[in-house]
Amino acid sequence: MSVAIIDAREWQKTFDLRTGETVADRHPLFGMVQGVQERHPYPGDLDVAGNRWVTDTALDLMEQYDPSFVFLTYAQQYFSGRYSVLTDADWPATVAAVFEEVERFVARSGFTPLIVGTGGMTPLAASIDLTRLDGLALCTHWSARYAGLHDPSPRDLQTVAAHPEIERIVTRDDFRQLFRDSPSDGSRAPEYLLVAREGCMFKTAGGAFRQVRRVPSPGYFIPVSACLEDVSDVTDIRKAVDRRISTGRVALIFVEGLGADDFPWPSRKVANGREWFFYETGDAQYLTITTGRHQVFEYPPGYRYFEEDGPGKEFPFSGYFRSVPEDTIGATSAARSIAVGNRSMFMHMAAGADISLECFARNLYNQGTMAVIHRSDKA
Amino acid sequence: MQCNYCEWRCDLTGGKPGVCRMYEEAGGAIRERFPHRWSSCISSRIESIPFYHVRPGSRVLVIGTMGCNFSCRYCSNAFIAKEDPTIVQERMLQFSPAEVVRKAKQMGCWSIVFNVNEPAMSFPTLQELAEVARSEGVSLGCLTNAYTTEEATELLASIFSFFNIGLKGLSPTFNREHIGIPSAEPILRNIRRLAATRHVEVTTPIIESVNDGELEQMARFLADVDPEIPWHVFRLLPEDEMKEARYPNVEKIAGALDSVRSILPYVYFHNFVGSEWVNTLCPGCDSVVVERFSLGCGGDRLKAFHCVEKGCPDCGREIRLLGDVAEQWNSREVNR
Ligand code: SF4
Question: What's the whole-model pTM score?
Fold first, then answer.
């Protein structure tokens, strides 16, 4: 049974991750993990201390659990980049600050780092308004480049075909064909996938609360540090990590919002998708890296997410995830593993680490932290 | 010329902006400045609004506009409620009433709930929406601060069939210092009025050592209005001007609420992940009749609905519920 420990600040509660039922039993790792949560309250997504929280929490957890594999995500700069007005001068300082944290972690832990920039950001140039279509256009999980179009009218199809900021319209069959080797069959992909041009994002029915300032820049290639061997594709990273775990202590570190141009360390550019499709930062990219297989269709862009969100959905604390993904690095490795991050609630699912500790924040509202214990049986 | 939508009764003569900046004088009448502009149009779960006693488990379309007539120091939506409405127009969604109702149906939503900001900011638009929604069999609900004038409260009652009313505090000092209004009296009057003919739930955000001393007094007031009124006590997540404030202590507030459960049977304590005070207990026999997950800002969700029709499965006592369980409404087929 996977267990979730919620720390809502000065109040903790433990649940079965799948059913959401309260767990009363004492678990061998509860006290240790709860102590780490207590010592490290999350400062908030836009707080400059957010990345320091990742390093501090990870080092503390490592001291208690002694893992051989560590998965980290640093995301404060991604949230700031997306929502704050940053000047050209601000960004290098922001990048320098996150790498100071990465360096501090590496120096203190002594782990061999493998650092992935999840893709750069570019100022928002234009919004593509899909709200007035007859059919239903949907963007899911903060995607800017992709929107799903469901039940379009002939007029809708003409409108999107003529739109100068729409780069491509892809039918479900063509999308499935592109990733025909995916574990999921793509049947939940939208009827049409709309692809925005560089710098543009889709505007669909949803929340217009916060002004988006930056969107993912073309991320056909992303930077990966310290790749001495043959890593040329995002699906190769998993093998590189596996090889290192077999001989030593490894940290796979995701730095959100960074592309090859921003990356301050020596790095190799690796393919981050296929043909016209590149992964934006998010669950699909995480799962692809941690399983070593393309995972576009688990939660496909623009799908009808709300249909899976009714009563009876399992994993109530795991957002839109319906199950624990198989074959992730943490899940398959015999080595002890931990994950710490401030990106989102999907980290505990994507990393599959024995113990995950992540912020519990939604739409930038800070509710505390959640730890997930998937495994406690590793010597 | 005076605006009579809320108790500020602003003088808008000669282009004066009014407290909310959402209305203007034009041609001898009060006119909405930004009609049919929405800050939100998104599907959600009704428990996440929160409505715990309206068609449990149903999917709703959440809409909102912009602007507010309060200036709560802890506002969690300041970027839309306190922002100059002129500035945010560019990113607003533009939908006619028919388009809003169509979006609701496309997403399989049983009802439309006005959330995010205060509905009194957009009366004419909402009146038009109500007309279309009614003709399409879609009901409307809202969250409101209920600071409306008596005549505008009648308008609210004509537009919405269910309400979650914010009762933030009773003392004039609290209302002056934290909410920016002289008194809660109009709110108390309007709770009484709306609860007389509409389904009403009430929400009170708690700030420790500020308004937690009023819990019992508020419960007694609500019980006097309607002894079965559902009451949501929120652990306030301080934002905006109070961002640095301490988070209220869960055990302390929960302990204080234990004693008011003898006054009101449907008392909930949430707005934080994992709360164990979100289930509905039968007022007759204390059986758990509706179970929920509390996900804080992630929105609450239905876990299990045990009622038989609208009655307790153990003792048969009727449970306060508006509508039926909406499983069919959440299926795709009903949209076709
Ligand atoms: S609705 Fe706005 S303009 Fe009208 S009285 Fe209230 S605050 Fe003033």
Answer: 0.91
